[in-house]
Amino acid sequence: MHHSFIVKTSGWAQQMFLYFLVSGTHSLVTVHQPPVLTTALGHDVIMPCHLNLSQNEKMMTPPVLYWVYLTQDGTDNPRVWIPSEKYDGRVELLDNNPNTSSKSILLKNVQWADSGKYQCKVSVITEGDRFRRRGNDTLLMVYDTMILKLTGHNDSLLGCKVNVTRDPGFVLSIFHDGFKLQPVDTAPGDADAVLPYVTLSETISLRSKGQYECQLYLNEDLVTKSIFNYHTPVAADDADAQTNVSLTCPTTVSGVVVFPEPWPLYMALLLVPITILLGLTSALLMRMYRCRYR
Ligand SMILES: *[C@@H]1O[C@H](CO)[C@@H](O)[C@H](O)[C@H]1NC(C)=O
Ligand SMILES: *[C@@H]1O[C@H](CO)[C@@H](O)[C@H](O)[C@H]1NC(C)=O
Ligand SMILES: *[C@@H]1O[C@H](CO)[C@@H](O)[C@H](O)[C@H]1NC(C)=O
Ligand SMILES: *[C@@H]1O[C@H](CO)[C@@H](O)[C@H](O)[C@H]1NC(C)=O
Ligand SMILES: *[C@@H]1O[C@H](CO)[C@@H](O)[C@H](O)[C@H]1NC(C)=O
Ligand SMILES: CC(=O)N[C@H]1CO[C@H](CO)[C@@H](O)[C@@H]1O
């Protein structure tokens, strides 16, 4: 009884396999791509796509990959991979082997017009069938360099500005030593419908010294941030504020990082010739000493 059960399992598995082939249930082949991606203007972005094939599905030929940009009206969707004229020279495959499950592409030098939805599609030929699977679209959103600086005629305000793809999910906030500040002025983006992006802006009044941080969120995810260190408390009168305000340039965390001068390295480099010189001098002195007292 028990024995026969074991013998039968392989037959059962085969039947299941046949069932999937015959019934045309292709739930065992899926295409995965992330729902949302953000990238800085002018940068390159990897758009992931992954073909998931269950063990018992065998492809007869390497799968054929397509990526398309979904236009808003849904017509004339340009092909991103294999690149149509519009994308020529701007798109690369991350993995050139057509047999691997990675179907990700690299889109280079992202522009505002690249904001939007992208779909990854894969054509598969298995032993019993040929069909096409598509991913659930990736929405690409673009942001420009964030600017965080003193504003107002007496530098009593700190303003944060950033241009982003038009989307209600983008939110700017300014924090002081970890606490969120109430803005004195905020612009959710002017309604210039001609431009493919909006300028988000937020201003707070400076209270005390410390670290001010402007953060750009897309829904729950931190996209980019910028830090401003304010060293001296705002003084009572204007003259004080003018002379005694000391600032450091804002450091854009997601962008260029400025490294301090490598003074220890310079010292080390200087020390080498000095040590050699000292060695030579002492050797010379020793010889002179020996000569004199010989
Ligand atoms: C695509 O979305 C549908 C509906 O939201 C979901 O049922 C399906 O599992 C998703 N497919 C993938 C591959 O994530
Ligand atoms: C691929 O499918 C298997 C089950 O068939 C699942 O365990 C695995 O998580 C899937 N991989 C991805 C990337 O979704
Ligand atoms: C991909 O697989 C096919 C057989 O299905 C083989 O002929 C081909 O050489 C493989 N290509 C690479 C780059 O491995
Ligand atoms: C946003 O774009 C406008 C041009 O429309 C430009 O003048 C402005 O400097 C940009 N703002 C930022 C913060 O980059
Ligand atoms: C800076 O100007 C604002 C009005 O623009 C004023 O309310 C504030 O008192 C001024 N701050 C100082 C330190 O003078
Ligand atoms: C105008 C003024 O009050 N200047 C002050 C700025 O801060 C230095 C100390 O760092 C004081 O000595 C100055 O009097």
Automatic annotation (TrEMBL):
Xref: InterPro entries:
Ig-like_dom, Ig-like_dom_sf, Ig-like_fold, Ig_sub, Ig_V-set, T-cell_Activation_Regulation
Give the primary localization class. Answer: membrane
Domain (Ig-like) spans 42-123
Q: Which residues cross the membrane?
A: 263-286
Keyword Membrane appears in the UniProt entry: yes
- Residues in the signal sequence: 1-27
Q: What is this protein called?
A: Ig-like domain-containing protein
Q: Which Pfam families match?
A: V-set (PF07686)
PROSITE patterns tied to this protein: IG_LIKE
For this UniProt record, give its keywords in alphabetical order, as a comma-separated list.
Cell membrane, Disulfide bond, Glycoprotein, Immunoglobulin domain, Membrane, Receptor, Signal, Transmembrane, Transmembrane helix
Q: Pull one GO CC term from this UniProt entry.
A: external side of plasma membrane
Tell me what organism the protein belongs to: Perca fluviatilis (European perch)
Provide the membrane topology annotation. Answer: Single-pass type I membrane protein
Superkingdom of the organism of origin: Eukaryota
Subcellular location per UniProt equals:
Cell membrane
Alphabetically, which GO biological process terms does the record hold?
A: cell surface receptor signaling pathway; cellular response to lipopolysaccharide; immune response; negative regulation of T cell proliferation; positive regulation of T cell proliferation; T cell costimulation
